[in-house]
Amino acid sequence: MSYSLKSFLSIFTMFSLISLMLIYPILKTNPQISSEIKSQDKNSLENIIPQNIFSNSVENETLLVHNMEVKVRQDNSIKITSQFILANNGTEPLEYFIFEINKNISSVFSYDPLSFLPFSWEVNPTLGNIINITMRYPLLQNDIYVFSISYEIEDAVYYVELPEEYYGFDFDTTHPRETNAFNLEILLPMYSKLSEQSLPAPVYPSPNKITTEDNVVKIVWNSENRDLGENDVYLVRYIILAILVTTSLPNLLPLYIVFTFLGGILLSLLVFFLIYYYKLKPVESGLVSSLLSDTEQEIIKAINIDGGVSTQRRICDKTGYSKSKVSQILSKLEEKSVLKRERWGRTNKVTITNPSFKTSSNVELQKKEQ
Predict the structure, then answer these.
(1) Nearest to 361 by CA among 291, 314, 293
(2) What is the reported pLDDT for 370?
(3) Closest CA to 79 of 105, 99, 111
(4) At 229, which CATH number?
């Protein structure tokens, strides 16, 4: 295997690996390919949460405000976002917030006004989903902290066809702490309206406000002084006036993978060409030139001084060789496919045809003058 081929294979392998390294983070983080949820064994919660965290949470934490937004999507999935304003009533700093959700959830995120917050997530057979949020800084006594958690619920909306069709949504929530003010907003899908049936009631309990904005119905409840563990149930019945047809963007990940891999190959070819042109080609030319005799190399240099095209008479003048000697040498070089001769008036025009023997005329002229 030649030196240049080995170099190309090495460069190609290197840039192929680089292409795979660029693709791997996308494969790892893209939700369509791998899940970000890490399941934990049944003892993992005990390993990462102090034993007294639950009792301290019950005794020392108060939610001054809990704003919950429940958004019903067109595909009947539900996204819930809870914003908490938490106060520490105890003397010990609070570093965690334990949140239990007894529903089948997915796509959990936790964040505060600065950025995302780290959290652990365990599915407990008895308690359901246990989410342990790490606060950005320990919450001292009488301090307050604002943060949010969002998650999604599937299969929460049901459909009733008879006697009159409608969609139903029953939402129950258990207050995770003593709560001074609880505000709930339920947003129906676009182009929906509340059912007009008298039974069952379209909304229960009676809301504080119902508004419609940008073809979205918003139902608002406000309540105060909710106890820890107190459960509230909210019922909504609605009909869809028009199906919103959305054109989803195509999944460009496979195309990105293909173009990234092809880009790595093209980059490796480009690097190989540059290395070959500036490094390997001169070495190769030197090796090829070393196969010629000294007199043959003198003839080649004389032709290169004229830019790779000269006449037999000028070659004689530049080298000082006789016409017969130059003719013999040119014949040998023709046999080696280095150059060709053509009749040109009373002499012959000589052209170098093998690019490995072409050099810069200026460089060769300077060498000749020296």
Answers:
(1) 314
(2) 44
(3) 105
(4) 2.60.40.1730
The least confident of 64-73, 97-106, 251-260, 262-271 is 251-260
**Tens of pLDDT along 267-321?**
777 777 777 666 655 544 544 555 788 888 889 888 988 888 998 888 998 888 9
**Nearest to residue 321, comparing CAs of 295, 289, 350, 344?**
295
Report residue 149 as tokens.
């958690």
Asked whether residue 274 is assigned to any structural domain, the reply reads: no
| Residues 204 and 129 placed together within one structural domain of the fold | yes
Distance CA 290, CA 288 (A): 5
* H or E element at residue 162: none
Residues with Cβ within 8 Å of residue 311, at least 6 apart in sequence: 344, 347, 348, 349, 350
What is the strand order of the sheet 339-344 is part of? 309-311, 347-352, 339-344
Give the mean pLDDT of the chain.
Answer: 79
- Interval 145-174: pLDDT, tens: 999 999 999 888 988 887 788 899 888 999
How many structural domains comprise the chain? 2
Query: Position of tokens 């139902």?
Result: 219
H-type alpha helices, the chain: 3-29, 44-48, 53-60, 253-275, 281-289, 294-305, 312-319, 323-335, 361-369
Domain that holds residue 190: 44-240
- In CATH, what number is assigned to the domain containing residue 300? 1.10.10.10
User: Could you tell me if residue 16 is inside a domain?
Assistant: no
